[in-house]
Amino acid sequence: MKVVIDTLGGDYAPFEIIKGAVNAQKKHDDLSLILCGKEDEISECLGKLKYDKTRIEIVSAPDLISNDEIPTVAIREKKNSSLAVAFDILKKDDDVIGLVSAGSTGAILTGGFLKIGRIKGVSRPTLCPFLPTKKGGYVLVADCGANMDCKPINLCHFALMANEYYKERFGKENPRVALLNVGTENHKGNDLCHQVFPLMQQLDINFVGNMEARDIMSGDYDVVIADGFAGNVLLKSTEGALKIMMGEVKKSIKSNFFARLASVFMLGAFKNLKKTYDFNSYGGSPFLGCKKLIIKSHGSSKAKAIEVSIDEIITLKNKNLNYRIEKAIENAKINIEE
Amino acid sequence: MKVVIDTLGGDYAPFEIIKGAVNAQKKHDDLSLILCGKEDEISECLGKLKYDKTRIEIVSAPDLISNDEIPTVAIREKKNSSLAVAFDILKKDDDVIGLVSAGSTGAILTGGFLKIGRIKGVSRPTLCPFLPTKKGGYVLVADCGANMDCKPINLCHFALMANEYYKERFGKENPRVALLNVGTENHKGNDLCHQVFPLMQQLDINFVGNMEARDIMSGDYDVVIADGFAGNVLLKSTEGALKIMMGEVKKSIKSNFFARLASVFMLGAFKNLKKTYDFNSYGGSPFLGCKKLIIKSHGSSKAKAIEVSIDEIITLKNKNLNYRIEKAIENAKINIEE
Question: Which tens digits make up the pLDDT trace of B293-325?
């Protein structure tokens, strides 16, 4: 099986991207890589690494889609961009099971939606990153920005897809699925919540009701469903607050002589903390609901994150995730289309 | 002038509420208090405090509206509740300039909306709490949960009202007003953002564009505008993440012998940090746009928070906030009603 990699997207492209891909290759004997990007740069990077030449293909696609470009325009018009070419390969080659990119989120979503297309029955694919919880597990947020204005059916599909993904990705039966809301009581929320709540109750998932934003990392929920706007606000404000607090802790320590002295003994403890709550150390976010597997790695991904993203694509393929999603939506169809 | 106080709402009612009110009275010679609640309890609390008897009135209103009750029903049906009675007094007595309550947010919003009514021209009043920023100032979020589904005109009014409030409350000319969005680029967002963005540009405020949720405490913004659902998610996820991080820092320290030992020297630094980011230490959130001044104090308010809330009502009255809001909306009318 093959995985196609966009080597130009991300802050540490191309070397860290290529290094991560090569590291993944070493672990999977049946994995071939297709690296899209600037040929000479890729060759140069590979020259510094040990890898199996028979299982690597380089495809010239020297243009980069930046984060500032309008995704729909860029994907269509930048035909020689690493991402557009990677999507073309993903679409045409049946042996290619998935794509990994640390590039423009918007362009990845557009590429997945327009070039690869949706799994049968899926109204909207969803981007769903996960966050660490204080109990040690992970919580998935679907959707986090792929879909701005959503209908109730979209949120039901997010729930069904994320539920299947969580089961396979984290090996947990009956993940606890919640609806993001302004309070936990059943009657809370905006019009969308009012419409979605009773539909969620009908789905064949472990729907545990509404969740308040402050409890996202409580460890009491596995999957949280929201429209892409609210999900994005949830994710980014959490990320922002964690970052600020880490900075403030450092500042507090530095402001006091004894604290500064004492902090030497605490470096290890703080390092662990930083690792747990550093979003960049995780693989990436799946873009669920497309006909092939797509992982959006964080823009600041280093080799490890890319390696983990490729691992994940192989795992999800082996577990037939997309087939499970199709079946879950097919079986739920009657109940949620009112 | 008089301020009416709901003595039954809040975790530390009635004593801390009454103590805070009495402390405010001491600072303002022309301030009279009307305390609504259980007469005997109020008298008992007052017995423990020093205060000017000629400027305190006790009104019997022994019922409590709890957070679990449906606000619209409770405010209508619990006629002898401390909050409903307080609103009746606020409405009828021209000398009463404002109301402070640490009780049910929903009931306070309902009471303000239904019993007091809106300032002329205001489409929807807004609840707008403020958060500390890492640069030492404050950022106001309007709306934070009073209005779930909003139209563009509502967000424009939030901006105009919060802008006037910020100027008077924090003494800052031209507060930087931003729109909560999923990215900073002008074209980002959901339908509501697309409609609101050009309207904001037309308003006579210092509109600085879109803000991402992760930058809420950056200190680069003074006022952030959102519909009540997204604003609520923004506020609560920030609050939740800060709390978790404080807990994790403590846990990290405890897990290591040397760190535990060293932490003794750092207690002062952490205490300062906790104080800065403890939302409960601030006064309360104004419910802007009603004909009289209403402050919702945090549920866990102690005396200081109540005192500050009363101070604020006096300040805002002296600065003619409601008149300024009416004028701001009147002057902007032509531009924003398309």
Answer: 999 998 889 999 999 999 999 999 999 999 999
Instruction: Among A149, A249, A270, select the one facing B273 at the smallest CB separation.
Output: A249
- Tell me the residue type at A100: V
- Decide if A214 and B239 are in contact by the 8 Å CB cutoff: yes
DSSP track, B118-158: BPTT-SS-EE--EEE-TTSSEEEEE-SSS-SS--HHHHHHH
Residue B141 structure tokens: 């979020």
Cβ-based neighbour number of residue A27 at 10 Å: 11
**How much is the CA Rg of chain B, to the nearest whole Å?**
21
Give exposure, B220-244, as e/b (b: 16+ Cβ within 10 Å): ebbbbbbbbbbbbbbbbbbbbbbbb
Q: Cα(B290)–Cα(B97) distance, rounded to whole angstroms?
A: 12
Q: Report residue B66 as tokens.
A: 């709890």
Neighbours of B94 (CB within 10 A): 8
**Distance in angstroms (rounded) separating the CA atoms of residues A325 and A161:** 6
DSSP B170-194: H--SS-EEEEEESSSSTT-S-HHHH
| Partner residue opposite A252 with nearest CB, options B215, B226, B272 | B272
Contact across the interface for B265 and A262, Cβ inside 8 Å:
yes
A78 backbone dihedrals φ, ψ, rounded to 5°:
-90, 75
Yes or no, beta carbons of A215 and B240 under 8 Å apart: yes
Cβ contact, residue pair B237, A216, below 8 Å: yes
Measured CA to CA, the distance from residue A133 to residue A217 in angstroms comes to 4
CA distance linking residue A73 with residue A66, whole number of Å:
12
The pTM assigned to this predicted structure is: 0.92
Tell me the C-alpha distance between B65 and B87, whole Å: 13
ipTM score = 0.91
How far does CA B273 lie from the centroid of its chain? 22
Alpha-carbon gap, residue A21 to B58, rounded angstroms: 74
3-state secondary structure of A277: coil
DSSP state of A1: -
Give the nearest partner residue to B252 out of A239, A262, A272, using CB atoms. Answer: A272
Model confidence pLDDT, tens digit, residues B34-86:
999 999 999 999 999 999 999 999 999 999 999 888 899 999 999 999 999 99
CB contact under 8 Å between B259 and A268, yes or no, is yes
DSSP label at residue A135: T
